[in-house]
Specification:
57% helix; single chain; 10 helices; mainly alpha
């Protein structure tokens, strides 16, 4: 299951969202050619979040710089897709500078959550997924019933289903929680604790905005949907391959 877009158009151009996507891509392209193991290790030592270093009071700026490093193309592509889907609406609600502060704060919260789970781990943590998880947490609070188009792939069957945001994001959070409980936090792999921490941080940071809009009254007035008309998309066309009847 892959979220590919939402039905929640933004009312303003999301300049910060575009800038973050461009910055992540630029950093990836600049570091992609590093094949030397020593140089790559040095890059991660200087800019990735290493809990053991943070525990020693060293390199706290890595809480921010680690957000712009990615371990591979699919890592980058997945994160930028999620930022593209959810980020423009949060920027619409928070404003450009407010969204940037929100994004960075959620990312720092995600890094601190991963650090708290394993403060002596020597494994570097990289990626924007913690900050983007914060964006998803805020989106869930403001637009729980916004439609998210999810691509479902089952063997050779491809189908797009519009699903409410609370289901898509709730399932995502549940999977992170289950995988996090069953993973070796200190041994590397996916930083599930960062995902969970970022999501919760984003949710908490969005509560004041939600309250200023009326809290539960905001949900009642909008029925959990975006406070503007939903985007309408054309359905995928069926195949033009003609059927050959049996004789």
């Amino acid at each position: 299951m892959f979220p590919i877009r939402d039905h929640n158009p933004s009312n303003r151009i999301p300049y910060v969202c575009y800038a973050l996507i461009a910055a992540n891509i630029a950093v990836f392209l600049l570091t992609y050619g590093i094949q030397d193991n020593w140089a790559l290790s040095q890059l991660y030592f200087d800019y990735a979040l290493i809990p053991r270093r943070l525990n020693d009071g060293d390199n706290p700026q890595a809480l921010i710089t680690s957000m712009f490093l990615h371990a591979g193309f699919m890592h980058l592509a997945g994160n930028m897709l999620f930022l593209w889907i959810y980020g423009d609406n949060m920027e619409d609600e928070l404003g450009h500078f407010g969204f940037l502060a929100f994004y960075l704060t959620a990312g720092i919260g995600a890094g601190l959550a991963q650090y708290a789970a394993s403060p002596t781990s020597p494994v570097p943590m990289v990626g924007a997924s913690g900050a983007i998880a914060g964006v998803m947490g805020g989106y869930l609070l403001l637009f729980p019933k916004a439609k998210i188009d999810v691509l479902v792939i089952f063997i050779i069957i491809f189908k797009i289903f519009p699903i409410p945001a609370w289901i898509v994001l709730g399932v995502w959070f549940g999977l992170q929680l289950l995988n996090g409980l069953g993973s070796d936090i200190a041994g590397g792999g996916v930083a599930y604790m960062a995902h969970l921490g970022g999501f919760i941080a984003g949710l908490i940071l969005t509560i004041p905005i939600w309250m200023r809009r009326g809290g539960s009254d905001f949900w009642r007035d909008t029925d959990g949907h975006p406070p503007h008309p939903e985007a309408q998309y054309k359905h995928l066309r069926t195949s033009n391959i003609p059927r050959v009847p049996r004789k």
